[in-house]
Amino acid sequence: MGHCAHARFVWNLAVEQQACWRLGRRTAPGYVEQARQLTEARREFAWLAAGSVTVQQQALRDFAQAMAGFFAGTHWRPTWRKAGRHEGFRQVGLKPGHVRKVSRRWAQVWVPKAGWVRFRLTRPVPDGVRSYRVTRDASGRWHIAFAHIPGPVPAPGNGRAAGVDRGVVVSAALSTGELLHIPGLTAAEARRFRLLERKLARARKGSRRRAAVKRALNRLRARLTDRRKDWIEKTTTALAAGFDVIGLEDLKIKSMTASARGTRAEPGRGVAAKAGLNRAILASGWGQLATRLEHKAPGRVVKVDPAYTSQRCSACGIRDARARESQAVFACRSCSHTGHADVNAARNIQQMARACAAGHAVPAREGPRTSRPTHREPHPGRLPSGAGQSGIPVR
């Protein structure tokens, strides 16, 4: 806990220095200047000198990297870290003898100023690791993660393409007809979660009872998070190992989950319903599913235009806004094809991903929707002669 407090203290000092900067003032200090100031602070304060200098310097390096991401426009501005919520530190310069295996399930790692600390092996420690990060989640569990970038999942080489339609009722519908649902809390766990939330609302702030209820709630949240992460890892690994091309809709999740609250002058409408939809989208893991797929199958994930994928018939190519009779039923009025609406959308995504992988243009965004089938569009899956000459077979 001492290393966590020191790392958080140094980080918050760096955040305060950035917050004090104003236009026209001298540039906020960078890592080199902050490291010099840290040396002076350690010389003056014994409680800070009692901690590990590498842990404190690494907190400054992490902050410098976070600021670089902010100025590059890829990350938010670094914010304050709070005790009890942001508990963790990073250690670098790991030597080969600093990690040793004790038994089949347990190992030890050398932590400066603390000595050997045991941890449970959930997976083999990679060779040649040079750093690790220790964190504590809200439920009180400690985790250690070694910095190592695993290799991508090898492509099967079977030429198969898969389309994945992400939704709320069905988390991921595949073009093969599979309907995948991200796990959640069981009925008993959900009931206990609601009871604990009521207890938390009645508990006095700062009391031991409130702290105990918060710990129980956090344990349930951690269990739910673990289940969802496990589902995402297993699903993405199966997709990367089973298909050469994986098609996804290019969804702007950040814009889709924006609040509808509006402003005080122009308040939004249907705010509660939109908030519920936002929670359902985020709980379905759309973004994490796409991110892990790109990690495991780099260069094989094709993002297609999501326009009208749920209205186009995957059998004949006709687009009809009234063909989707309900959330789950798609019935084409032109060719009488019926099936699950999400699977139909996934097959449209598959066909567009195939065309893109073969080097042909994906159908552009179409005009306004029509209530009745007025024209026949070229079928997305019908490719001209010579398809598949780009190196990825098309079937």
Descriptive labels:
2 domains, three-stranded antiparallel beta sheet, alpha+beta, five-stranded mixed beta sheet, disordered C terminus
Element layout with pairings:
Layout: H1 2-19, H2 31-44, H3 46-49, H4 53-72, E1 87-91, E2 99-101, E3 106-111, E4 115-120, E5 132-136, E6 142-146, E7 161-166, E8 172-174, E9 179-180, H5 187-202, H6 208-242, E10 245-249, H7 253-256, H8 271-283, H9 286-296, E11 301-304, E12 329-331, E13 338-340, H10 341-357
Helix pairs in contact: 1-4, 2-4, 5-6, 6-9
Structural write-up:
The protein is built from ten helices and 13 strands. The protein has 395 residues and is of the alpha+beta class. It folds into two domains: 1-148, no CATH class; 155-180 and 241-395, no CATH class. Strands 9-8-7-10-11 form a five-stranded mixed sheet. A three-stranded antiparallel sheet has the order 1-5-6. A hairpin with a 5-residue loop joins strand 5 (132-136) and strand 6 (142-146). Residues 363-395 have low confidence and may be disordered.
